[in-house]
Amino acid sequence: MMKHAWDSYRQYGWGHNELKPLAKKGHSTNIFGNSQLGATIVDALDTLYIMGLHEEFKDGQEWIEQNLDFGVNAEVSVFEVNIRFIGGLLAAYYLSGQEVFKLKAVQLAEKLLPAFNTPTGIPWAMVNLKSGVGRNWGWASAGSSILAEFGTLHMEFVHLTYLTGNPAYYQKVMHIRKLLAKMDRPNGLYPNYLNPRTGRWGQHHTSVGGLGDSFYEYLLKAWLMSDKTDTEARKTYDDAIEAIERHLIRKSNGGLTFIGEWKNGHLERKMGHLACFAGGMFALGADGSPDDKAGHYLQLGAEIAHTCHESYDRTVLKLGPEAFKFDSGLEAVAVRQNEKYYILRPEVIETYWYMWRFTHDPKYRQWGWEAAQAIDKYCRVSGGFSGVKDVYSSNPTYDDVQQSFFLAETLKYLYLLFSSDDLMPLESWVFNTEAHPLPVLHLGNITLPGSEPAQR
């Protein structure tokens, strides 16, 4: 599957950000502005490397050496460029040792720094790579920045400081953490919107799916990546998860555990595909949780995995919808037409992989194999892989996009699910939210510039 996705992109979309596998031409979305930055190449590199596809890796490296230029007049998503490009380049560097990847990651990081020039230090959602001018998405609550976006920079930025010795990156992300720690949180929950001019929350929406998701993931992973010395991150994670469990996690009438969304004072009984990553997160965070609750969180991870598997199993294609409801007898199914699509997303398979690593229960491989077969049957086209618009239709139409994250995440997690545990062991590697592995930093007595010495 990886060979087919990569070779098709190589043939029809090379250098473009993504591929239209039916039209057999390049594709790009607004998150990359009007640029041709080869997002698929950068996103896929570490997957190619891990799978032993070294010729393909070399092709990608050559393109990056010769063509990857960040001095373009393009307005890009700070978050997406961080997790896909900086994460992808850093992972490629750590896996292969090739200096060009580190060099490009640092060049790009410099271009993102102007996004932090706001009254609060909470970065803009978008920045122009050439001019450094930043702004927020027009649709976001009253000019707010988004929790999952400004809260998903920590892993990459700490590694940038570690590799360059430049404290600026570390200081930027620690400033965000300190600012959030001082703010009051309604019900202990973090709203998804924060205004970078005033430093006040926007609408009181809270989600572990889109707009919130990876903020929580990076609190846990900051702790893991620090060799468990960043206890402040762990405490913040534990407190957040406790509030989430109290206010957002419920059991349906049919016995399915789900994570709802908090909106304007009430719980919406709807879960997004993106929130399905949380099963893996709960399992990953089980060890080290307070009050001997490790077993509880592993169980919670298993329940979320089961619910998300049901969302796949209750469709015609055995592929999960974008969002699914839990009310009035209908459970784990999409109700609205615009929530019935599957765009090659990885989150459910990601949770299967973590659950497999921590339990070795064979059902997770079984479920992953079902998903792999369904993707290969319904999403494979002659020019690559495409998302489908309705997972409940036996005659689905394609969206004609091969997302870069399909190669970065979905196929990597599937491959790891069927590999032995000593390939990318979790003691040594922490995966960013785009599935790019970064090594645990065994800093011991070394402190990052501008940081406090670790308290053991």
TrEMBL record:
One of its GO terms (cellular component) is endoplasmic reticulum. The active site is at residues 80, 213, 322, 347. It is an enzyme of class 3 (hydrolase). The keyword RNA-binding does not apply. InterPro entries: 6hp_glycosidase-like_sf, Glyco_hydro_47, Glycosyl_Hydrolase_47, Seven-hairpin_glycosidases. It is a single-pass type II membrane protein. Ca(2+) binds at residue 433. GO terms for biological process: carbohydrate metabolic process. Its main location: membrane. Gene3D superfamilies: 1.50.10.10. The keyword DNA-binding does not apply. Pfam families: Glyco_hydro_47. Pathway: Protein modification; protein glycosylation. Its EC number is 3.2.1.-. Disulfide bonds join 276-308. It catalyses: N(4)-(alpha-D-Man-(1->2)-alpha-D-Man-(1->2)-alpha-D-Man-(1->3)-[alpha-D-Man-(1->3)-[alpha-D-Man-(1->2)-alpha-D-Man-(1->6)]-alpha-D-Man-(1->6)]-beta-D-Man-(1->4)-beta-D-GlcNAc-(1->4)-beta-D-GlcNAc)-L-asparaginyl-[protein] (N-glucan mannose isomer 8A1,2,3B1,3) + 3 H2O = N(4)-(alpha-D-Man-(1->3)-[alpha-D-Man-(1->3)-[alpha-D-Man-(1->6)]-alpha-D-Man-(1->6)]-beta-D-Man-(1->4)-beta-D-GlcNAc-(1->4)-beta-D-GlcNAc)-L-asparaginyl-[protein] (N-glucan mannose isomer 5A1,2) + 3 beta-D-mannose; N(4)-(alpha-D-Man-(1->2)-alpha-D-Man-(1->2)-alpha-D-Man-(1->3)-[alpha-D-Man-(1->2)-alpha-D-Man-(1->3)-[alpha-D-Man-(1->2)-alpha-D-Man-(1->6)]-alpha-D-Man-(1->6)]-beta-D-Man-(1->4)-beta-D-GlcNAc-(1->4)-beta-D-GlcNAc)-L-asparaginyl-[protein] (N-glucan mannose isomer 9A1,2,3B1,2,3) + 4 H2O = N(4)-(alpha-D-Man-(1->3)-[alpha-D-Man-(1->3)-[alpha-D-Man-(1->6)]-alpha-D-Man-(1->6)]-beta-D-Man-(1->4)-beta-D-GlcNAc-(1->4)-beta-D-GlcNAc)-L-asparaginyl-[protein] (N-glucan mannose isomer 5A1,2) + 4 beta-D-mannose. Keywords: Calcium, Disulfide bond, Glycosidase, Hydrolase, Membrane, Metal-binding, Signal-anchor, Transmembrane. Belongs to the glycosyl hydrolase 47 family. PANTHER family: MANNOSYL-OLIGOSACCHARIDE 1,2-ALPHA-MANNOSIDASE IB, MANNOSYL-OLIGOSACCHARIDE ALPHA-1,2-MANNOSIDASE-RELATED. Involved in the maturation of Asn-linked oligosaccharides. Progressively trim alpha-1,2-linked mannose residues from Man(9)GlcNAc(2) to produce Man(5)GlcNAc(2). This is alpha-1,2-Mannosidase.
